[in-house]
User: What shape does this take?
Amino acid sequence: MQFKRRQLLVLLLIASQLGCMTFGILWASNWLRGTFTEFMVRTTAAQNRSTVDQLARRISDREITNVDPGTTGWSRLQKLCERVTPPRQGSIAVVDRNTGALICHSGLKKDPTLLRKFPGRSVLVAKDNVAPLIEAARKAEIKSKSPAIGEVEFAGQLYQATALSLPKIDAVLVVYQSQASVDESVAELVTPVVQVGFVVAAAVIGANSLLTVFLVKRFDHTLSEVEASVEREVNRRTLSLTRSRNAVVFGLAKLAESRDKDAGQHLERVRTYVTILASEMAKHNAQIDHHYVANLAIASALHDVGKMGVPDGVILKLGRLTPAERRAMQMHTVLGGECLTSVERMFGDHDAFLDLGREVAQSHHEQWDGSGYPHGLQGKEIPLSARIVALADVYDALTSHRVYRPAVGHAEAREWIVSNYGSQFDPEVVEAFVAREHDFAKISQQVSEQRAEAAASQPEAAAASETSAAV
Assistant: This one.
């Protein structure tokens, strides 16, 4: 999910760069187009002004006074218009200063019908004035003796026009340059610049995108290595702390067990039995996972930690306990629960291991039918951890030697546990025991063999001691 989110961010970065570049190029192209258009309009106006002045001088030099169609003066004026060709699809016209009718035109040979038009009546749009062309020319003559300049529409097209009043022949000389041609000239200048800009932008964005992807991958790789290294170190330290905790817990539990001379390897065997039972139950119980099994195996060592608070006279007594002594012995569950509750309170945060330890210490002598101690809990009121440890503890007690009774075999212990199905023990735990009884029997057999070897070695040790004393 995090990787997909990072990919999305990279795509958004590339898209934002593309958007910014595109916006910048479009803005720059519009600015260039406007600047070049203004420049071309000024250039066109200057060219038109030069052409108008040149023609006006020629008309004056030829002393043309009568420009009525068919006269010599008209012929000379028409020839002058035809000889001069303004750039950008331009044309030259002479219009009547009063009516606006066309007198001469550089394209008259191609289109004689132009004589029927009145271009002088077309509106000339200048920066500071909007008026018919002939009127604008008269105003410019009166105001500054200069031509009128602006945009005008003629024959369905838009032109940049310069109109100069010629009072001697009562006409207006007009030079046209096509606005479309001006726009084409601007496009010829701006389009290559814009194209180069897009190419450069694409190259920059492409290079930047590749660099970004490379850096992100490099960062991801480095981050993954760091995370893996940190995770390994955390796991190593967690494992080390867990081992240290387990060693301390098991050591304290062994200290409590050491007061009971008959206990032997009781804690180790109970831990093994608990692991077997919990692993079997995990197949059908969602509450149990491998963390639960591992924690319960260690926490089971705390089931008799409360015996540290039971008087030696009770713990070390070889015979049967009196009712008062039995009550004192039963207090080890309460003492163990209180001890681990205090540890939990000092620890502060909730800890699954301590929870299991407290449950086991306090409730492993509770019975399924409610006849156990210290609180007489019944059924599933008893914590699952305590129900599991209870069976493991009883099985080991039955199959272990005590001074007041011999050990029983696996078959007899099995029969006794099964006979208490649903009364002393949780049925689910008993079913797990039956499913894995061959493992219990195997461990019980090993204990019996070890006990037999130990018993056989005792006479040999005694004989060796007597021989040494005689010497």
Notes: The chain has 13 helices and seven strands. Residues 42 and 200 are 31 Å apart (CA to CA).
